[in-house]
Design goal:
about 25% strand, about 240 residues, single chain, two-stranded antiparallel ribbon, 5 helices
């Protein structure tokens, strides 16, 4: 039989190993070089969220429960939101977890959080470290995971979680609209027809949005500063 002019010996650079077989391709796909990257992302995300829960959120909720308070609102300022950082601090404000950090840290003297009821059990916590930047905490997946893990904490203690439209599957645009509406409601007189959380129930809301602080500057004048923050609201029925 006459040899084909297109045989492998006639093609320059041809190699029997040039193209992998189907089975080899499948194996390569299953062991993607991106797998370690995705594993690292998920591991870091879980670690950061668990740290926020154990270091800040749960201790504040326990303190509120001990004081007989059913509602708690926590405002977390990410470490690199410079517009919401204080201009200076003294050694007396440093806690075991760093300046303005830790479960006992609240408003810096001369600061007022705008847009929340004055009678609300409200706490301002400043986060620190490269793991607590706004770039991390403003991710929708992170906010969803934080909300889910907080729900799991209460479900393990026997509470029934009330679905909250603020984070229960709502899109970023929908949450922004809800946040603006809530800010308006908070600044006005509230009617008696408020949602009631029954015994054994818990209402949880987690979001990342812009907040404003009224601060006193170096010359004694008040000014308003705004920036992104993570807001966690919890109401336990009694």
């Amino acid at each position: 039989m006459k040899e084909s002019p297109y045989s492998s010996e006639k093609l320059p650079g041809y190699s029997e190993n040039a193209l992998p077989s189907y089975s080899e391709s499948s194996t390569t796909t299953q062991h993607s070089p991106f797998s370690p990257f995705l594993h690292s992302v998920n591991k870091t995300r879980t670690s950061n969220i668990r740290n926020l829960l154990s270091t800040h959120i749960l201790p504040h909720l326990y303190d509120s429960a001990g004081a007989g308070l059913s509602k708690t609102t926590l405002v977390f300022i990410p470490s690199n939101v410079s517009s919401l950082q204080p201009q200076s601090f003294s050694s007396s404000t440093v806690t075991d977890n760093g300046p303005f950090g830790g479960a006992a840290a609240d408003n810096f003297p001369g600061e007022t959080i705008i847009g929340f009821p004055s009678a609300e059990n409200l706490h301002l916590i400043r986060l620190h470290g490269a793991e607590n930047t706004v770039d991390f905490w403003r991710q929708e997946a992170v906010i969803r995971d934080l909300n889910s893990q907080l729900e799991e904490e209460f479900e393990r203690s026997g509470h029934r979680v009330v679905v909250n439209a603020m984070t229960g599957g709502a899109s970023a645009a929908e949450r922004e609209i809800l946040a603006r509406r809530e800010s308006i409601r908070n600044s006005q007189w509230m009617s008696t027809k408020q949602k009631v959380v029954g015994p054994g129930e818990v209402d949880i809301g987690v979001e990342c949005r812009e907040v404003s602080l009224r601060v006193e500057n170096e010359i004694g004048l008040f000014e308003t500063r705004s920036g992104k923050a993570v807001i966690v609201r919890v109401e336990v029925g009694s």
